[in-house]
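User: Please predict the structure of the protein below. I'd like the answer in structure-token form so I can feed it into my own downstream comparison script.

Assistant: Understood. Taking the following sequence of 370 residues as input:
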Amino acid sequence: MPETCSLPSNPAPGARPVQATTAQSGNAAPKADNDYSALLARAQAERRLLAVHWELTQRCNERCTHCYLPVRPPYPVPSGELTTAECLDVLEQLAGLGALYLTYSGGEALVRQDFFTLAEAARALRFALRIFSNGLAITPASADRIAALHPLAVEISLYGADAATHDAITRRPGSWRRTLAAFGLLRARSVPVVMKTPLMRQNVAQVAALQALAAQLGARFRYDLTITGSVDGRPAPPEHRLTDAEVAAFFRHADPAQRQRGESHGPRRCAVGKSSLLIGADGAVYPCPEIRIAAGNVRTQRLRAIWEEAPLWHEIAALRDADLPACRGCAVADLCRRCHGIALAETGSLTGAPEVACREAWARGEGMRG
């Protein structure tokens, strides 16, 4: 499931202060949430890099049927993957740019033998670290090392409230049991954990059970209704994507907290190109997990030059409602969770109207009207 480079709602205790975006100095963190919100707003207005999503590898120890990445087996290490030395250099460059929030993902980030070298280096540079994982590589020993990192959270994907559902999607027998064990190992060490579940036809009926399971495991539950196509152009598997009727039924019976209404005119409020970026396993730099147009590559350019000089950022950040002719005057704009990247994948244009977003918005409206 694609994951955005979203910024946490609160600053990270002890994290390195953001340079050049605040008048604060030393190790002081913002004193209140409104101070932090102001910092974010200023960073986006001034195009200061705050958040980085880094796909350390495309290798994975699961073979999820809905995955949007062309994943590789855990071994051997592909020749194009950034080396440990290259990654450490990029970390230094990110720190020099003042980035604060760093997410390590994959594939499965923990299949890299140097994962803890890179994670510990990130914390030494005082990044606020978040880890995306499927949990299969989390053992008591690795859980100890993760706890020592004091991450903002470890976000673990779970696809079903039972082994049959989850394992059929991961195509890895026994993965449900091992993933649940990872939640327990981390919570026993007081590591904040998030259960992430993309809702599909196979598991949408299990939402209540999944929420209850998350509570039992001491995890925050987060779902996503959007199953996207692959970055290599393959469409989303139709057997996974919810039908309009299923989306409407979901919102008809969901409590207000579950409904997660889209922000009014979501495209205007998207921070893509303004304060975040994504680094691919091969060093390519993209605006986000969904927009796979490379702005440059850390193997041939310095990150500062990519961030400050590549014209792609300005092209994307400048998009406004007036640039979205198919969206103007839409009756369900306030329910829409349109994404420029999904539009690009579906229509070939950043300004197109992606069918998946349009259908979901209408279905949300139907469901919320009861």
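That's the full token string. The two ends are 29 Å apart (CA to CA).
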